[in-house]
Design goal:
Arc Repressor Mutant, subunit A, WH_DNA-bd_sf, transcription, binds pyridoxal-5'-phosphate, DNA-binding, alpha/beta, eight-stranded mixed sheet, Aspartate Aminotransferase, domain 2, transcription regulation, four-stranded antiparallel sheet, 42% helix
Length: 465
């Protein structure tokens, strides 16, 4: 047996016999090398081996941790909407009611807690802009958005090898407005659009409000968008646009890999379907490796990429964008007749923040905290929830998607509300109210006793639903 295998075997025994428990940190690489008298490379290899076996998990800059006993992933359910139909899900109204409440423990809200965001630095940027440039801050912004911010956004794309010109970026009020403007620009009532199943309820609401018909392509917990099915659907139907979240789909947290992304783009280009790419979670890769947006491979001008600062800096500033490519002029016209321009002060403040601070550093800290929260939540669920609970193990984003076979999660949602706990029942993520035994929880809340207690309570409530 090679040296690294011997070390891996010792560590494996400690894990399986309970000496090292789920969530605990393995000794550091240096400690392992010293205590077992092996080289650093051998210690690294041993940890990589445990990672491959699913027993340990690396967290950037923190070391290796023992993984919680991996729960079974939720079943991938084939989408049932094979022919175009209307969005018909009365539960969508309940989200609006819930978002208006500020008294809940916000496990329903896919946003990082304010404690994980650079509030002081952003406040300083807002004050600085008001002090030094009050006229620009209080005047109309250019309809396309302030150039200083568009430049900063273009630079972020350049850092991941995607060439974007500031001239093709249009600033919006969050990604939600970007998606809505793109849909309004591309479609007429009655047109068919493709969405993922499951998908973010805001996308379903936009589609319903514009009286569009939907087709659903499955998104699978372990591999993201089902590209073979997408090709079939495009062959059988005339689909004007596809609203897709390939990087850390909400609610699954699933990732569509690069090969599938390229195949998907080819299909859409062949069938003249414009992709509205919602890349709002692309920066939240817990491994630190940001996955590429679809735009990287777009050779035919078939992608409009939407992004936002909501999930990484401040949802309340309401600043997002779209990268319009050939569609930029048309998108700008649609934006102009609805909002003229976006609020000036938040744009200037974000440009100021991005110029002065290392966003990458903040993202590393944020992603580490999210991965940590998700890990602890998994453990709490494994200990306190019905044994049949299945859970996704996402690699990024803000959501934890659970399946509770036999449990009515709408009932669970209502009971939890009475206890002051917000949750998102699975039905919200389907155009027709499917996923009645699924639940989405946010992993954006830092771990503390209150959260621990709330998860225990939810587990007990789930046993009675
Ligand atoms: C997939 C997805 N797209 C868009 C949005 C809306 O984002 P914004 O606050 O930028 O409008 C959300 C918010 O949860 C989301 O999850």
């Amino acid at each position: 047996m090679l040296l690294y295998e011997q070390l891996a075997t010792q560590l494996r025994t400690q894990i399986t016999q309970g000496a090292l428990r789920a969530g605990e940190r393995l000794p550091s690489i240096r400690q392992l090398a010293r205590s077992h008298d092996v080289s650093i490379a051998t210690a690294v290899q041993a940890c990589l081996q445990l990672e491959r076996e699913g027993l340990a998990q690396a967290r950037p800059r923190s070391g290796y941790f023992v993984r919680a006993a991996a729960p079974l992933p939720p079943e991938a359910r084939p989408s049932r909407r094979r022919t175009p139909g209307n969005v018909s899900n009365p539960m969508l109204q309940d989200v609006l009611d819930m978002l208006a409440r500020s008294d809940l423990l916000p496990l329903h809200s896919a946003t990082p807690s304010p404690a994980l965001l650079p509030q002081a630095a952003l406040t300083a940027s807002l004050s600085r802009c008001l002090r030094h440039a009050p006229t620009a801050a209080l005047d109309y912004a250019p309809p396309q958005g302030h150039l200083a911010l568009r430049r900063q956004i273009a630079q972020r794309y350049a850092q991941v090898g995607v060439t974007v010109s500031p001239d093709e970026i249009v600033i919006t009020a969050g990604a939600m407005e970007a998606i809505s403007i793109a849909l309004r620009t591309l479609t007429q009532p009655g047109d068919v659009v493709l969405v993922e199943a499951p998908t973010y309820h805001g996308i379903l609401q936009a589609v319903a409000a514009l009286k569009l018909k939907v087709l659903e392509v499955p998104n699978l917990p372990d591999r993201g968008i089902d590209v073979a099915r997408l090709e079939q659907l495009l062959q059988q139907n005339k689909v004007r646009a596809a609203v897709l979240v390939p990087n850390f789909n909400n609610p699954l947290g699933s990732l569509t890999d690069d090969a599938a992304k390229q195949a998907l783009l080819k299909s859409c280009a062949r069938h003249k379907t414009v992709v509205i790419e919602d890349d709002i979670y692309g920066e939240l890769a817990w491994s630190g490796q940001r996955p590429s947006p679809l735009r990287r491979w777009d050779k035919h001008g078939s992608v409009i990429t939407c992004g936002s600062f909501s999930k990484i800096l401040a949802p309340g500033l309401r600043v997002g964008w779209m990268v319009g490519g050939d569609w930029t002029e048309a998108l700008l016209r649609t934006k102009y007749f609805s909002t003229v321009g976006s609020a000036s002060l938040p744009q200037l403040a974000l440009a100021d923040y991005l110029q002065r601070h290392d966003l990458q550093r903040h993202l590393r800290q944020l992603c580490r905290a999210l991965a940590d929260n998700a890990q602890r939540m998994h453990q709490a669920i494994a200990h306190n929830w019905p044994k049949s609970t299945r859970a996704c193990t996402p690699q990024g984003g803000l959501s934890l998607w659970l399946q509770l076979p036999g449990v009515n999660t709408q009932r669970l949602f209502e009971l939890a509300l009475r206890e002051g706990i917000g949750t998102s029942p699975g039905m919200l993520f389907s155009s027709r109210g499917d996923y009645g035994d699924c639940l989405r929880l946010s992993c954006g809340l830092p771990w503390n006793d209150k959260l621990d207690h709330a998860l225990r309570q939810l587990g007990q409530l789930a046993s009675h639903c």
